[in-house]
Amino acid sequence: MKFGTFFAYWVTEWKGDYLYYADKVKNLGFDILEVSAGQLLTMSDAELAALRDRARTLGLTITSNLGPPKDKDVSSADPAVREAGIAYLTDIMKAMDKVDSRALVGVIHSYWPCDFSDLDKPALWARGVESMKLLSETADSLGIDLCLEVVNRFESNILNTSGEAVQYCRDIDHKRARILLDTFHMNIEEDDFGDAIRHAGSYLGQLHVGEGNRRVPGKGHLPWQEIGKALKDINFNGNVVMEPFIRMGGQVGSDIKVWRDLTGGASEETLDLEIKESLEFLRRTFA
Ligand SMILES: [Mn+2]
Hints:
Shape: globular
Bound molecules: manganese (II) ion
Distance between the termini: 9 Å
């Protein structure tokens, strides 16, 4: 098992200086830096190569997190939007290849945040599956896993549970189509954390971890022992990536709906210390 964090813990916009965050997360003891996949498209080949080289030097894995915009929705009823979405995700995977990032994670089978303007779930499902079949071939040619994120009902109407995601992946029927479960979303939708993880089984490509209010693991009430035991039950050897969102403001605060300061006015130094302690807690609990 490798442990990482999304860089957005420290920022309020979906962009950052990834050389800085690569050094920082390595120093804090992480194995993985999760970056914003959309930002990779704004970086030059030289910048992408610099990030790849820095990560290699540090022995750090890069994973790429994406919530595609509505005009790039691969499940859209509009064929032109689906085509734009497939082209967009293909370009992102090519950029990921340049930084040696081998996992694309998020609500990539749809768009995010969802505005629920299309409620024809069977049609959205069928079109999404067809698009993901195509994208799985591209992903395979680049050695990339697609980890489809299961999120709560307020953020998407396609995949809300592990059960739905397993069926969706069976429908895609490609080894590169995997599942991302996120403990924050599971806390809202699943009957049982352990059963949901065991049901995902070998489809589970990545786990996002965070408390019910999106603070770092260990600060709230989620059953980390039970979650760790379920990961052991399925011999999970993938990526466990924290996705804490505790800062107000900016596009991140707005998209995530952080309407109060959950940091308690903490400095960057204190934020670093808290996530380091959480990492140590998780390594102990999941060992
Ligand atoms: Mn997540």
